[in-house]
Amino acid sequence: MTFRQFLPPLVGVGLIAMLVACSSNSTTTKPPTPSTANQWAWQAGANVANQVGTYGTLGTAASTNVPGARTAASGSTDKTGNLWLFGGLGYDSIGTDSVLNDLWEYSPGTAEWTWVGGSNLANQVGTYGTLGTAASANVPGARSAPTSWTDAAGNFWLFGGTGFDSIGTNSGDARLNDLWEYSAGEWTWVCGSNLANQVGTYGILGTAASTNMPGARQHALNWTDATGNLWLFGGLGYDSVGTNSGTAYLNDLWEFSPSTGEWTWMSGSNVASQVGTYGTMGTAANSNVPGARNAASGWVDTTGNLWLFGGIGYDSAGTEGGEADLNDLWEYSTSTGEWTWTGGSDTGNELGTYGTQGTAAASNVPGARRGAANWTDSAGNFWLFGGNGYDSAGTDGGDTDLNDLWEYSTSTGGWTWMGGSNTGGQLGTYGTLGTAAASDVPGARQRAMFWIDSSGNFWLLGGGGYDSVGTNSGVANLNDLWVYEP
């Protein structure tokens, strides 16, 4: 299977999952998908955090293979419903906890993982080869929090993150802006730099150019539009003047055309740390723009418009980017180039209003958060799970991982709390492997991997959060695999 067989994702790009033992023992079974709608089923992986990877033989599927626990990885789903995983921050084959560049394929039909490429050891530098030329030796360096897409031709794309460039710049200080394409089993370095910490080249707003290039960044938001163009928003990184990436939240919006190979700066500022301009709720305007942020969530609706929710960054009052979790909801029209603030608050650190579980209400709204998982169902409704932020009681967002599940109806414009807890810091309830149950629910977590299969089921893997025994979320990376049938 290759990424050329991929379908364009329903919600930007889904992230991915890994498979390990159902306990500290290394055993794997072939579980069924759930038969009951609106219930979670624990499908694979460990219910205890911080598991190492078992790679097996490169290119060979096996029931004993399993990626190590990780967070902030990327990936996608192919035409046959198989799941792909790249990199992230987590555990390699010898237990090193650092950034990864391993590429995996998981088959839900056989419940087996295949280590497809990259290294089974952490902290690998990138092998870039010749710009624009595919080669079997090419491979992106190890990284976490990159941005990824699938284009209209079914090819997989990867941009930036924080990790290792071509000369081994320290991963803790190295943000990247390299763009890669994976097709027919080979990587191609398409554009951007093979060296870390590059400033952005913005060019003229709304005008594509071969010299345009977003600055290095991590945790940017991604979408793929109806025509297969790739969109990028914000993140934490470098603007046009080299503002320190450790404090530089961005709100620039970019479009990349795979057919022309050119970037276009579409909206937002080329200078970091911008406050949001909200305008009137429900009214589009040229002057509207979300504030700078990273780790937001997003969807593409049935008309091809782009939606953005939350993240950590700047609200309308200029609350410092590192202090404000957000719960604002925005829509961007790809035809008019205008943003509309459609819901949530224009100030940071808002509590969640949950209402009654399973019942929509105009007053319902998820609390401010970053690093939530997101999907779109077959009816075009948006779904949001967990993240790090504010629950119903106002527990400190900086220390609170969540496991609440929400649905947003694009027809009514209302939120429904569908499952999980309205209180943060919840342990996972795993139940029986492969069996859906109303009482089962993933533990609270942020920056999990997520995707949609060919049947429209939601999948969730790992992230940083709580396992079944309450391992501290600050040091707990997970590799439990869950499926939810909406």
Core attributes:
five-stranded antiparallel sheet; 30 strands; Neuraminidase; mainly beta; 486 residues; 0% helix
Largest sheet: 5 strands, antiparallel
Stated plainly, the CATH topology is called: Neuraminidase
Radius of gyration, rounded? 20 Å
CATH architecture: 6 Propeller
**Number of discrete helical segments:** 0
* Secondary-structure content class: mainly beta
Overall outline: globular
**Low-confidence spans: pLDDT under 50, at least 5 residues?**
1-31
Helix content: under 10%
Number of domains: 1
Q: Average pLDDT value?
A: 90
In total, how many beta strands? 30
The CATH superfamily turns out to be Kelch-type beta propeller
**Cα distance spanning the termini:** 27 Å
The CATH class, by name, is Mainly Beta
Strand content: 35-45%
Oligomer: single chain
Structure description:
With 486 residues, this protein is mostly beta strands. It has one domain (3-484): 6 Propeller (Neuraminidase), CATH 2.120.10. Helices cover 0% and strands 36% of the residues. It has no helices and 30 strands. It has strands at 40-44, 70-71, 74-77, 83-91, 97-107, 112-117, 143-144, 147-150, 156-163, 175-183, 186-191, 217-218, 221-224, 230-237, 249-257, 262-267, 293-294, 297-300, 306-313, 325-332, 339-343, 369-370, 373-376, 382-389, 401-409, 414-419, 445-446, 449-452, 458-465, 477-484. Strands 1, 27, 28, 29 and 30 form a 5-stranded antiparallel sheet that branches. Strands 2, 3, 4, 5 and 6 form a 5-stranded antiparallel sheet that branches. Strands 7, 8, 9, 10 and 11 form a 5-stranded antiparallel sheet that branches. Strand 13 and strand 14 (230-237) form a beta hairpin. It starts with 39 loop residues before the first strand and ends with a strand. The relative contact order is 0.15. The model is unreliable at 1-31 (pLDDT under 50).
